[in-house]
From TrEMBL:
It is found in: Cytoplasm; Lipid droplet. Coiled coil: none annotated. Pfam families: Abhydrolase_1. This is 1-acylglycerol-3-phosphate O-acyltransferase ABHD5. The lineage of its organism: Eukaryota, Metazoa, Chordata, Craniata, Vertebrata. One of its GO terms (molecular function) is 1-acylglycerol-3-phosphate O-acyltransferase activity. It comes from Cottoperca gobio.
Length: 374
């Protein structure tokens, strides 16, 4: 796997492509000339409406458009947690499934609940499903996070626990994609009694950065240059930097998202949603940056802490056959937990966004796994 592929997948698939555009010659000169202004701008939400064509209402509308093809009945609410924060939550439930352990969906970096649009109806057939916008993302509160990696991670974990207590879940199946998978394990280590099963979907942040990386896989000069130039910035600062060009930028750089959801939408619904998700106040994005070291590796690799996860908690790991995420972490987890249930599943024809690339196979796989949980 090349270094630029690693950078793409490690940060949720969209980051490096955004950085590539910001790295184009036509924009580099602007970046050099306006570094101070950009840093200030990134942290002043009141500038957003005048520069980026977005607002909280537009994000809400974009999410509603994403969910318009979902047939099941569901509720939407802001669940209050500590410090005046809220977590935006979709709940699919009915009387016939109320006695079964609920499935909780945690999205990845730069994502939101709307990206589960092709999965919600199927996954909620046999048990309650709750999809949550992580703290700092989507329509959830966007507070200041600690710049310390461990403290930022703990803020995420505590927000999930406060949310669980508020919605009244005794236990749950935790399914996390990308960053959501990392947080699912971190939460389960601290609150093992609340988790019946962990499902990791293309998880981020598990392996250590190889010490021989630069020797074995030389980093292209242009990546080093961009890395040095943009090290003070959040991963998606480039998307906000281009202002009104942002929506077109997402459509141009990520046409694959339109294909992933082509069975539901023929327009730019998905790219509009992704845009509005990621040009709001960069709260969770800043926390993610604090939790990484250069090129998207985790500051606190989760493999170093897997022995702290209680052996009775089963783990299912789902990869896409066409993803450039290294699946060796799954094998490492299996080797580290010889007396625990660890299952590794590869879905053919899927990339990093397994749930969107092959939604039918993904839904079947998750439902089959959930059948083993009361």
């Amino acid at each position: 796997m090349s270094m630029d592929e690693q950078a793409v997948t490690a940060n949720g698939g969209i980051v490096q492509r955004m950085m590539s555009v910001v790295g184009a010659h036509s924009l580099l000169s602007s970046v050099r000339g306006y570094v101070d202004t950009t840093i200030r701008w990134c942290w002043i939400p009141s500038w957003l409406p005048s520069w980026c064509p977005t607002s909280q209402m537009q994000l809400q509308t974009a999410e509603d458009m994403m969910l318009r093809c979902v047939d099941g009945t569901f509720s939407k609410q802001y669940v209050p947690i500590a410090n005046g924060n809220v977590l935006w939550t979709l709940t699919f439930s009915s009387e016939r499934v109320k006695d079964r352990t609920p499935l909780v969906l945690l999205h990845g970096f730069g994502g939101g609940v709307g990206l589960w649009a092709q999965n919600l109806d199927s996954l909620s057939q046999r048990r309650a499903v709750l999809a949550v916008d992580l703290l700092g993302f989507g329509q959830s509160s966007r507070p200041l996070f600690s710049t310390d990696a461990q403290e930022a991670e703990e803020q995420f974990v505590e927000s999930i626990e406060q949310w669980r207590a508020k919605v009244g879940l005794e236990s749950m199946i935790l399914l996390g994609h990308n960053l959501g998978g990392y947080l699912a394990v971190s939460y389960s280590i601290k609150y093992p009694g609340r988790v019946k099963h962990i499902v990791l979907v293309e998880p981020w942040g598990f392996p250590e950065r190889p010490h021989t990386l630069e020797v074995d896989r030389p980093i292209p000069v242009w990546i080093k240059a961009l890395g040095a130039m943009f090290s003070p910035f959040n991963p998606l600062a480039g998307l906000r930097l281009v202002g009104p060009l942002g929506p077109t930028l997402v459509q141009t750089l990520r046409p694959d998202f339109k294909r992933k959801f082509s069975s539901m939408f023929s327009d730019n619904t998905v790219s509009e949603y992704i845009y509005h998700l990621n040009v709001q106040t960069p709260s969770g994005e800043t926390a993610f940056k604090s939790m990484t070291i250069p090129y998207g590796w985790a500051t606190r690799p989760m493999l170093q802490r897997m022995e702290q996860l209680q052996p009775q908690i089963p783990v299912t790991i789902i990869y896409g056959s066409r993803s450039s995420i290294d699946s060796n972490s799954g094998s490492s987890i299996k080797d580290m937990r010889p007396h625990s249930h660890v299952e590794i599943i590869t879905i053919r024809g899927a990339g990093h966004y397994v749930y969107a690339d092959q939604p039918e196979d993904f839904n079947y796989t998750v439902l089959h796994m959930c059948d083993n949980v009361d």
